[in-house]
Amino acid sequence: MNIDTDIESAIRIPGTSAHFLEPSGPGTEGAGRLRYLAGGTGAPLILLHTVRTQAEHFRHLIPLVQQQYTVYALDLPGMGYSQIVPGASYQEPATRAAVKRLLTELDLNDVTLLGESMGAVLALTTAADLPDRVRRVVAVNAYDYPGGIARSSLLARLIITGVLAPGVGPNIAAVEPKRVMRAVLRGGLGDPGALREDYLDELLKVGRRPGYPTVARAVYGNLPSLIAARSRYREVTAPIHLIYGEKDWSRPSDRQANRELLSDADYTQVQGAGHFIALERPDVPAAALNATA
Fold this sequence. Notes:
Layout: E1 17-21, E2 34-40, E3 43-48, H1 62-65, E4 69-74, H2 92-105, E5 111-116, H3 118-129, E6 134-140, H4 154-164, H5 169-173, H6 178-186, H7 197-207, H8 212-220, H9 223-228, E7 240-245, H10 252-261, E8 266-270, H11 277-280, H12 283-290
Parallel strand pairs: 3-4, 3-5, 5-6, 6-7, 7-8
Antiparallel strand pairs: 1-2, 2-4
């Protein structure tokens, strides 16, 4: 179903259109409607975004790969324009279930999964659950270590601590001054100029959706479940390509731990890049994807 005009993103990605996936299959009772962007030709490629972002996070990557793949860029549950369901869980298993819904309800096979940050963890665990459907995984800056975004700067650490604090946390989560959001996101970039103002405005617009502060607080609080999900990585049978920015929030020891855990995986470190590689160096994951299309 095409997206309604009153909840449409202001950012347009040529060659894509936005759709909704209604909860209709077994086990989806209480699940929300999912929004995704689709376009391109070829085998299916699922794109899974980072914490506090949405499908448009891949606006620069999609044009580089849509001649080789049919792209499906998902708004994870409660994020972007996917439905906010009161009381929903945003722990890794619940969020993974939404990714699996996209694959199974659209009956996608020979799938390549690319995720960044939280999306990288979900790409790996989804591949573990659906080995017969997944062909390859590209995991960019997997967000599976203690600290996460709080490592990016003192400002980010103070904000995330406040958002998660009992009592005052929901009020802090509901207030997102543009200059603060800009500073926090730039803390994930080697090149601060890669954060465009229209994308920042889009994220702030989505953050004003009723109920979104509750979602943001829950997502920031789900880090322990992302760390726990590393135990599933060894179950992935599809080929894996790990990509890290040199200036990612992960430490060299975190990256080495995943290299040892996934010893057969390809590995790329992007010089000068930070956490949001899809924003500042989309050419790197695009090259990895197109080389195996």
